[in-house]
Amino acid sequence: MSSAHFDLIVIGTGPSASTVAKKTRAEGKRVAVIEEREFGGTCALRGCNPKKVYVNAADLIDRVVGGRGKLVDYEQLRIDWQQLLQFKKTFTDPVIEKSEASYRKKGIETFSGTASFAAADTVRVGSQALTSERFFVGTGARPRPLGIPGESLVLHSGDFLELSEIPKRVVFIGGGYISMEFACVVARYGAHVTVLQHGDQILSSFDKDLVTQLSDYCAEHQIEIQTRSEVTAVQQRSDQSLVVNYKKADQMESIEADLVIHGAGRVPNVDDLDLQAGEVEFGEQGIKVDAFLRSVTNPRVFAAGDCADTGKPRLTPTANEEARVVVKNLFASQSMQQPDYGVIPRVAFTVPSIAAVGMSEAEARKSHDVDVHHEDTSTWGSVRKTGQRCAGYKVLIDKQTNLILGAHLLGPAAEETINLFAMAMKFGLTANDVKSTLFAFPTFASDVRKMV
Ligand SMILES: Cc1cc2nc3c(=O)[nH]c(=O)nc-3n(C[C@H](O)[C@H](O)[C@H](O)COP(=O)(O)OP(=O)(O)OC[C@H]3O[C@@H](n4cnc5c(N)ncnc54)[C@H](O)[C@@H]3O)c2cc1C
Ligand SMILES: NC(=O)c1ccc[n+]([C@@H]2O[C@H](COP(=O)([O-])OP(=O)(O)OC[C@H]3O[C@@H](n4cnc5c(N)ncnc54)[C@H](O)[C@@H]3O)[C@@H](O)[C@H]2O)c1
């Protein structure tokens, strides 16, 4: 077994790991990076970026259909799935081709294979044992094991993004981000979609009233949403078609499908790391870290992003912020830094998108004397001008301080407009401050003045 020694060994090449590896190398340290799949990580290869290409196709269809007979006319409009797949690859293939070389160019040693700890200061990859002063674990998340018969018949989100064709009947297990984003795409392609969600609301981290509005719009687009439905098994028939069994209000039901997709949550990807051998404590929510993102049991080890138990949403912006702090803390001789998350906006890139930042209505009512501004905005000029008709907002304002406690948006450009609220909330702008700001007109941003 060969060996080598480094200042820092980074496990993974997603947004958190790539920042930590490259910035630490720029400080002159000897760095190695280990990746078990293609270099580039989830966000760039199997998550945010390729997903947004697919969503853009569905969104474009929706906008053109909405504008038909008002803004445009057309004979035929459709998604060509093969073409879409090829276009997606123009974003992911260059990452696969160039990512590993980009580390090497910076003087970072790269290793391909699954990393696992052999001791508190040693990691193994293939036949090599590598020792290091520090380790960074950025191994991300993986689909939650469903633990049901027929689980191997269910495709994961990464598989979905490689499909060259979409059959007629598609069932999604779970009604969270992944299912609802992909469901909107598949439905605009023309397939019949069923979403089986075991809780009583899809997209449970978003505003209930806006989610209802979105669900009604989805129902008009061949997306059947079944709530309180827990998937219990998937079976394959001799003709290759699938049957999904689920429990709905204590009744066993079943539905036929040609394709079943997993959207039932993701868990920290730590099983292969042999964290016990590395003296790194972990639990169901991932690697236990302190406020400085250092392992609570092995001071050589830091972790961030989806694999770390930070209690924060598992998103790329949180992974990036945590990585920024890890770079400062890895070799800090004295005071270490904590992440400054501010308020974290979240967006489900459904069609149309739904977005949120800050408190939910229930949280705000529990802790504050709150003014709730809530409206269906489908009749507002900005929305009508696009031909679209699914839009709304809810903004929560503290009556005493006039501060914005939470903002919830649905409709065209919600994914962009939510960032205005995030900035206003992070820097403590009051609703009156926002109201008194001149925004360019006519824009969706200028609607914000009417919402506060
Ligand atoms: C379909 C989908 C869509 C998403 N869309 C969005 C979005 O729109 N916006 C958003 O903010 N977030 C989105 N996310 C979440 C986002 O992708 C993650 O939060 C982000 O990628 C986390 O980054 P990370 O650095 O923790 O690790 P990842 O990006 O998950 O990278 C981890 C890397 O570690 C490697 N690895 C794992 N174990 C080992 C090992 N033992 N040895 C070596 N290598 C290993 C993996 O192969 C992978 O390359 C999406 C996720 C998915 C699945
Ligand atoms: N736009 C984005 O930012 C974005 C997009 C995709 C993924 N992500 C990240 O990836 C994570 C995983 O996404 P996800 O959609 O898989 O998870 P999720 O946590 O958003 O939703 C999973 C849903 O599945 C349901 N569920 C679980 N088991 C079930 C079962 N057996 N039968 C029926 N329903 C079941 C849960 O009640 C939940 O509503 C997200 O939490 C997020 O961190 C983010």
TrEMBL record:
Transmembrane segments: none annotated. Residues 6-323 form the FAD/NAD(P)-binding domain. Keywords: FAD, Flavoprotein. Residues 344-451 form the Pyridine nucleotide-disulphide oxidoreductase dimerisation domain. InterPro entries: FAD/NAD-bd_sf (IPR036188), FAD/NAD-binding_dom (IPR023753), FAD/NAD-linked_Rdtase_dimer_sf (IPR016156), Pyr_nuc-diS_OxRdtase (IPR001100), Pyr_nucl-diS_OxRdtase_dimer (IPR004099). Its cofactor is FAD. PANTHER family: GLUTATHIONE REDUCTASE (NADPH) (PTHR43014:SF5), MERCURIC REDUCTASE (PTHR43014). Belongs to the class-I pyridine nucleotide-disulfide oxidoreductase family. This is Glutathione amide reductase. The lineage of its organism: Bacteria, Pseudomonadati, Planctomycetota, Planctomycetia, Pirellulales.
